[in-house]
Amino acid sequence: MSSQLTNHSLSKGNYFNIFHQNISLKEKHHELLSHLFPNLPHVLCLTEHHLKAFELQSINIDHYIMGAQFCRTNYAKGGVVIYAHNSLCLTAINLSKYCVEKDIEICAVKLEVQSMVFCIITVYRSPLGNFTRFLETLDAVLQSLYSPTLGIIICED
User: Residue 16: pLDDT above 90?
Assistant: First the structure.
């Protein structure tokens, strides 16, 4: 399986593709790309990956690099991660101070594509989480990231 995603290919009228999925990577990371091939997205935003940090570090998804992540330490399941195609230049945004297990699990990256700068945020809230805390924290995150020149894309579950 090979992929030729480059900034050059985007300039020919192709769309920038972001894929979001709620998926347990523990059982399904091997088959993830096979379902997307041959039109691999530029960015993978995954919620409820169910992995601890050391387990997530051992996951290798061909042609992608891990840009940002959050893993639970006190409870099972949950977690969020963003992978970007290895042809893209990205910067991780540290949002760990905003994460509260079950209430809001969030990570983000900043990308520049065709002279546009934007932030991709992936967020998860458990149905058992505190909804008010979720809304207040998400608002605080968005206020901290806001810039008139920065586009923001949110992938959430």
Answer: no
